Structure formats: structure tokens, C-alpha cells
């Protein structure tokens, strides 16, 4: 079995009868076991996945065709999977979910086999995936470093070839940051594109679910599968007229691209020089591809006032929904802020939305896409914030990751693309940021970049064997 088969590639091989779903699941399980030290998975559904694979093989033999029938994928541990708990990395008296979340229902409807639930941090708060109760995810490019967070386990699983693609969630960059730090494509879709049900208004509108994959085509295919609303969702979008997978095969045309290194007001703007050079190199590549690239900054205004009430009250809501939680002290502080201040300021945050969108959206009067770094720092060391209090952790991660969260407040789409490597071999990412509901343009542009850059063929030097080590 060849390693690093893509999502679409696996689906096509299954239809042609070149491989069975059982073989794909066995290969995935072997790589998960061999890469156990990466801590990518909290739960591995070995027995259930093999049984589902056997059923998928029968369905394929009977002529059934679905987009991902028999293909292994992974989901993040903030997502309900019937029969499994959803601790979101917090120690508590958790009970198994009785129903699948809407994303899981759609994955199953497309025929995908869920290999397990991936490691995260407590309530998705930080750009690392470590917690006292549920372990630590490590970066396949260098296990001394984090794969990012909070979808770090999903990123590690994909980068290490355990699965071809995985689902993450993004409330302040939590798909794009781990994608940047593991050399992947990560798509934060438009708010309302992918249902979070049974969460009707996840983190008060800032959190969305989306794909992490090694190629743009695979990420777009997974986004097509995930796309859709539940009647009880607060935010609901109509289905796009053209599948996102088709956008990944389309020439983007000549685009106007604003190159920006500016961060929102009040956030550190100190950028690692290697990241700046990598993003500038990518800008030159885009120019060579025929696009007009020029320096210009969005006017963010007081956009932070749209994030803090939503995020802090969202953490409080998660903790309040748990039975006898025992979170870290810094998580408790965030929840306390949410209860005392965040919930009171939520109405103000929501009232600010139209004005913020108008203000930031002015850049799209003369640009089609905004290009920025995804992070300001290279991947953090594992344990960099072990034992740190709330203020030290919050200020440290805000300085490391000041670029992604603004688009969560706006609700607009963003895509991380690989931008190269540091001198020590750590991945660097860049963001393509789009206007309201314009995922298709970002996907088309990212696919063009992928063809020119060739990042899909780059894999970590650390790579689990296809069978467990002796």
C-alpha cells in the first residue's frame, strides 16, 4: 500500500477495485499505531472502522457510489460521535453522545469511515493541542514542536499520513494555524456554510468547521461533503451553485491581491523575519502567475471587541454544559471573564458586526484577495506554556498568532497555504483571505499556487512506518 494516498485518489481506487476499504483502514490503523508518539488521536475506532470498511466494500461491490464511500477520515474531539464522549480536552463526568453531530452525519452519508477523534486543547483556547487530562499532539515535522491548535491532532494525523484529510474547527484560526505549522491546506469556510449542530450558534458565531488536507483538491472535496445547514442553525447559507471541488480545477483568472502584514489594533505586530520572507516569496510567485500584488492593509478598527465577548462567553457555555468539570486554572479564568463580562457585551459585539464588515470590506473595492502570514511565529515548542497562568498564556499566544482571528469575527472565508520552511525545517503558512462567501476564488487561487509550488509532494522526514515499529 502506497503511503500518502489522497482523499480523491483513494475514492477513485476503491471504485476501480484497485484497493479495498478494509485495506485502506488497515493501512490507516498501522500508521496511527506507528506514529503513536505524535498523540494525534484521543480515540481510535479500530474495531468499528474495520466493520464499517467491510460494509463499504460490500456496498461498492453492489454498485453503490458515494463521494467518500470506504475512505478513512478523522474528526476533532469537539464534535459529537454517537457512542463516544466529547470532552473537548476537559476532565469531567462525560457521557457518550447519543447522536452524531451534523458534520458526522454528512460524512457518513458520503460513505466516509471515521477513524477516530483527534487531540485538542481545553475548549479550543490555544494554538497548541495539549491538556492535562487528554495528552499532547506533536508535529510530524519535528515532534519537539506543536502541530498547532486547537485542531492540532487533526493536522498531525494528516501531515503524518494517518488519514488523507480530517475535519477541524476554527474559532480564532484553529484550522489555519495548525495547517500552517504542519504544511497543509486548511479551509475556514464562510460562517453558516457548515453546520455545527447540535451547536446552533458555535461560540456565538466565530467558530466554523472545515477541512485539513495535503492538497487543495482534497480539502475542497471534503468541504463539499461537509457543506450544508441544519434547520436549527442560527446562520444558514444556500448551497453554492458550483461544487468547491470544481473550483479547485478552475483557473482563477487575473486577481488583485493585497499583501498585508498589519495586525489588528492592540495586537503585537512583531513578525519572525523568516515568515516575512516566505510570504514575500509567495507574493512574488503570485506576481509571476499573472496576478497584481500590491501592499495594502484592511482597516480593522476595534475588531477585537467583536471577538472577546464571543470567545469568553463561549468557553463559559462549554464549561457550564459539563458535569463536574475540572479544567485548568487558565480555562477557569477565561470562563469567569465570559460569565462576568463576555455575556453582557455580546449584544454590543453583535451590533458592531455590520459596521466592521463595511469598514474591513472596503479593501475589496480594489482587491479580490488579501494575502497575510498565518502566524507571526514558527511552531511553538511542546510544553512552552506548561504551568503558565492565564495572562502569560494569553499574551504569548496572541503574539504568536495575531493574524487569523479577525476573519472569524467577520465570518468570511480564509485558506492557509504552505509558504515554505524555516532554516530549521519547520513549515510556514500564508493566508488567502476572501470576501463574503467567496471560498471558490480562494480555492481556485490556492490550487494554482499548489501546482506552481509542488507542496503536495513534501512529507515530513519523521514519517511513521506503514506497520508498527517492533
UniProtKB/TrEMBL annotation:
Residues 23-442 form the Amidase domain. It comes from the Bacteria. It holds the Pfam family Amidase. Signal peptide: none annotated. Gene3D superfamilies: Amidase signature (AS) domain. Belongs to the amidase family. NCBIfam families: PRK06061.1. This is Amidase. It comes from Actinomadura fulvescens. The lineage of its organism: Bacteria, Bacillati, Actinomycetota, Actinomycetes, Streptosporangiales.
